Amino acid sequence: MSLLLPLLLRGAGGARGALRPCCRAAARRGLSSSSGGWAGVRPGRRSLLAGLAGAAAALAGLGLVRRAEMVSREAVAEEEDELSRRCGDFMAPPVSGLRELRSRRQDMRSRMEMLIMETQSQVCRALAQVDRGAAFTVDRWERKEGGGGISCVLQDGNVFEKAGVNVSVVFGHLSEEAAQQMKSRGKTLKTKNGKLPFCAMGVSSVIHPKNPHVPTIHFNYRYFEIENADGTKQWWFGGGTDLTPTYLNEEDAVHFHKTLKEACDEHNPELYPKYKKWCDDYFYIKHRGERRGIGGIFFDDLDSPSKEEAFQFVQSCAKAIVPCYVPIVKKHSHDSFTPEEKLWQQLRRGRYVEFNLVYDRGTKFGLATPGSRIESILMSLPLTARWQYMHTPPEKSREAEILEVLRNPKDWVH
After folding, report:
1. Neighbouring C-alpha atoms within 13 Å toward the C-beta of 316
2. pLDDT in tens, the chain (414 residues)
3. Is residue 151 within 8 Å of 173, Cβ to Cβ?
4. Residue-range domain boundaries for the chain
5. What is one cellular component GO term in this UniProt entry (predicted)?
6. All residues at 6 or more sequence positions from 249 whose CB lies less than 8 Å from its CB, including other chains
């Protein structure tokens, strides 16, 4: 278009900037070559009029293109401003950096990173507002093999003994041990020269309150991409949210499960019962014959019905974290408790540690991944716990009540 414009202007210049009377008349009549309206107009004049008409059309088209380009630039600038504004609310700048996120803003890796960063920020700010006794330490780290993360940890607060909310975005090549873990779940992985490129990102949190009447919560939402030797990619989402109370409060259990069910039901009413059972089965301490807590939802290897629909589901689950948990914290953070109740909390934390170190797949995967940050992986462990030899609670006590539920999971929402 830029080359066409000078040529058109030079052609128009031969008319000395004005149409002669016959040309003006023809123009007013709106004549066209196809309608035979050029009759009576000399051939030289016809070519001049045709050139001017073409020039006008080209200039009009150029104006439309320029306006479209301006609108496009404005839309991009507005989108970039929105991206900057969202990043400004995070606990720290995103792991990948703003420039990289902008360059691939529609890619799932960027969208998932924005979601986990937002989730970290929302949860940390909600917890800090409740605690008001300690601030989150924001610890940014890098992984030599590729990527890094942001660990946010609050310790010895008024309400929380330890609350950690971590984000990690890592890439590189899977270790043989990590690849074997995935193959054991039915993954077909095609390595090239023994290497398997991967990208993994997620937000993970464990929150241990001081008061034994405030339950512990854990959540994790993650995204994996694997590149096979033939260049094809496998992807999947995983995650969940689960509650571990020291003492059973049925009203709290119903609230927690109902909030998660509503998040699932936005997408498919079959998801909650499926993922609730999966959660009960996954968080099972085999050598104790009991669940770690009263469950919630858990899923892994989610790669259907589509990448977009799976992402939207994960987003709904992440948004449910604060409303399913923070009201329970506020309700019980000032409850009185006895030394015996505190002792029971310490013993239940011992069970929590046992599950995480012996069975938890995320912990085992992290420990098996080269360059993993051990401090962030073991952030899930409480500051204090207790193992007492042959401890058995009295029958029909509140301690026995919670054990019954841990051994025989209940349906909290019908």
Report:
1. 19
2. 444 333 333 333 443 334 344 444 444 444 344 444 444 555 565 566 666 666 666 666 667 767 766 666 666 666 667 888 889 899 999 999 889 999 888 899 999 999 999 999 999 999 999 999 999 999 999 988 899 999 999 999 999 999 999 999 999 887 767 777 776 777 777 766 667 889 999 999 999 999 999 999 999 999 999 887 787 888 999 999 999 999 999 999 999 999 999 999 999 999 999 999 999 999 999 999 999 999 999 999 999 999 999 999 999 999 999 999 999 999 999 999 999 999 999 999 999 999 999 999 888 878 877 777 888 889 899 999 999 999 999 999 999 999 999 999 999 997
3. no
4. 4-81, 105-407
5. mitochondrion
6. 213, 332
Q: Which of 354, 350, 341, 344 is nearest to 387 (CA)?
A: 350
C-alpha radius of gyration, the chain, whole number:
32
Q: Is 9 exposed, middle or buried (0-12, 13-18, 19+ CB in 10 A)?
A: exposed
Nearest to 220 by CA among 13, 366, 66: 366
What are the CA-CA distances from residue 285 to residues 280, 345, 401 (Å)?
10, 17, 18
Length of the chain (residues): 414
**Nearest CA among 289, 291, 265 for reference residue 279:** 291
Segment (H or E) for 339: helix 339-358
Bridge partners of 192?
195
Angstrom CA distances, 25 to 19, 21, 22, 51, 319, stand at 9, 6, 5, 17, 69
Catalytic residue among 173, 208, 218, 255: 218
Q: Half-sphere exposure of residue 79, counting CA atoms within 13 Å on the CB side?
A: 13
Residue 257 annotated in active site: no
**Amino acid of residue 191:** T
**Which CATH superfamily includes the segment(s) 105-407?**
Coproporphyrinogen III oxidase, aerobic (3.40.1500.10)
Write the CA distances from 197 to 170, 191, 344, 349, 370, integer angstroms. Answer: 11, 8, 45, 37, 13
